[in-house]
């Protein structure tokens, strides 16, 4: 996953996580101080980090950074502390049986995780990408900007999957 390594470096994510952390001295929880997503089973949301137009669940990023968890895994990351906002790696564990651990695991990851890593493109995105190509922006730069694989830019260019989208986006300020 070359695009992922070049765009979301561990150093960058780590600095983001640590600079938005509130330590709870009572529980040792690392509370995310920025945006929270909705959790399906509690009123308390999990932390969200928005990077390059994509939302990432902060506790999953934490497990990826400090527990060797594969961010693309379909497994849940669950909280021992029952605090979805918490991203202390010591309080996290990989859930293997969603039924048994449902109450400790926020549900969002399974359904939205894939979207994050296979970034969905809208017809307008396709038009904008076309436009960037005509403006001489390299395919790799465009891929980084949209957080998608470079090969998808080639597909878009050749209109293999997007025949129905008309060309015609023209906005110098977008480049
Ligand atoms: Zn905690």
Short description:
The chain has 175 residues and is an alpha+beta fold. It has helices spanning 2-7, 10-19, 58-66, 98-101, 108-117, 123-134, 139-146, 150-158; strands at 21-23, 30-32, 48-51, 54-57, 76-79, 92-95.
Q: How do the strands and helices of this protein lay out in sequence?
A:
Elements: H1 2-7, H2 10-19, E1 21-23, E2 30-32, E3 48-51, E4 54-57, H3 58-66, E5 76-79, E6 92-95, H4 98-101, H5 108-117, H6 123-134, H7 139-146, H8 150-158
Antiparallel strand pairs: 1-2, 3-4, 5-6
Helix pairs in contact: 2-3, 7-8
Zinc ion binds near residues 83 and 86.
What does this structure look like?
This protein has two domains: 2-106, no CATH class; 113-174. The chain has helices at residues 2-7, 10-19, 58-66, 98-101, 108-117, 123-134, 139-146, 150-158; strands spanning 21-23, 30-32, 48-51, 54-57, 76-79, 92-95. β3 (48-51) and β4 (54-57) form a beta hairpin. α7 crosses α8. Mean pLDDT is 76; it is low at 1-6 and 107-118. The protein has a two-stranded antiparallel sheet. The chain has 175 residues and is an alpha+beta fold. Bound molecules: zinc ion. Zinc ion binds at residues 27, 29, 81, 83, 86, 88, 91.
